[in-house]
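Working notes for the structural subgroup meeting. M.R. asked for a predicted model of this chain before we commit to crystallization trials. I am recording the input and output together here so anyone reviewing the notebook later can reproduce the run.

Input as submitted:
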Amino acid sequence: MNRLPGIAAVALIVLGGATSSVSPSAAGGPLAPMGVATASAPASSSLSPMQRTTPAPAPVQVLPEIQVKDARVKPVAQAPAAPARIRYRGIGADMPASAVGIARDGAMEVPDDAAIAGWYRYSAAPSQRSGSTIIAAHAGSIPTPRGPLYDLRASRAGQEIEIIDTRGAVTRWKVDAVQQLHKETLDLDPYFLDTGERKLVLFTCGGRWDAARQSYEDNIIVTAIPAG
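Returned structure, recorded in token form:
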């Protein structure tokens, strides 16, 4: 199985041809029809009814070359929809989600406001059939001292989580495991996988508050599998 990057470590054919105008002849005679050659006879003779002018060949109209798209070329696949909202009634959480990437220190970005969850853009989208969908949020922040995922530590196996994506589709998940692990010894590799079994992984902080570091010592990790 592959590890995700960055953690610690895209007929209407208009016929051509301009119209032209021709001025009357110097003698003031009528214009000859376009494309018809006229023959003149000596002044002493006249044309018999059988001696008619012969029309010149009609001008050939050349159509521009038409490029036909190869029917074998497949259209570019639409990118899977990103998570837009998380609903976890078991802990009273209902919050928006936005896509995040990699911070300067190589860790996953997390929105500054604990009221907003971050979906790791390099992880699987909820509608995909394999890999882990990674979502994280702070337990608390200055704008939101107690975030919606603060009570993630109270999760219980079997509880349902809903993820609503940017197209309005809902995927449902069932909590499979709840862990509280110390940040200093936490190995994230088993969670950040882009292949293998389809999973939803939620992260937040927990455990004892370290005033010196202004951070919790542990991570709370909830792993969920597709419901039904």
